[in-house]
Amino acid sequence: MVDYFPDFIARQTVAYTGVASAVALLFDFCITFDSEVRWTWGRKWGITRISFVISRYLPLVGVTLMTRYAVEATHGGIANYAMLTPVSDSCEYIHFLGAFAAEVLLLVRIYVFWGCDKRFLVVISVFSMATAIAMLTIAGIDKIGNSTDSTHRVLEVDKNASIIYGLLVLFELVLLSLTLYKRFKTHRLENSPIVVTIYRDGVIYMLCITLVSMVNCIVIFALPSSYTALLIG
């Protein structure tokens, strides 16, 4: 019989990290809900608001499923493996869609920074699509490989996922560079509070998500397979 739980401590670590992530997300949701009501409710529905709602609420569903999945996978035993597989697949789709919506918000922000230049929009859209296609291709290859691999374990991702996060790091570094370039090239003399806040907070946010993607890439590539899902949720 295949041992799906060779490293119980690693499984527990991944599960508890998922629970901690869920708590942090819920805490952030609660303390920012009043700002959401003030600035987004009642506004027209467009690509920006749709992307915001998806990136805001879909992760709440994702972390709920992921927490249940992690706890069941750690304590439920091998008998629950078949039952947990659809939950795992749902978590992957939700995670991807939420991340995609968040990246769309970054693209809209940078498009506005660049003066809504149509040529810039075409270039950055082509770059974004090429990156997304490359990531989806790698994910699809991994999915096919895992579907024919009877030893594939729950709470683990394929090592090739490090390439996906590497591409994501590259994408986010490009967006960060474009933001910094526009700030110091065009708006360096613009010191109004709103401009300073928008650029500062945007740069801090992109630095944080780039760092997380980079750490995820390293964790998946360097650590044992039991830890590969440590930061996925």
UniProtKB/TrEMBL annotation:
Source organism superkingdom: Eukaryota
Keyword DNA damage: no
DUF6533 domain boundaries: 16-61
Pfam families assigned to the protein according to its UniProt record, in alphabetical order: DUF6533
Annotated InterPro entries: DUF6533
TM stretches of this protein: 14-33, 54-71, 93-113, 120-141, 161-181, 202-223
Alphabetical keyword list: Membrane, Transmembrane, Transmembrane helix
This protein's name: DUF6533 domain-containing protein
Top-level taxonomy: Eukaryota, Fungi, Dikarya, Basidiomycota, Agaricomycotina
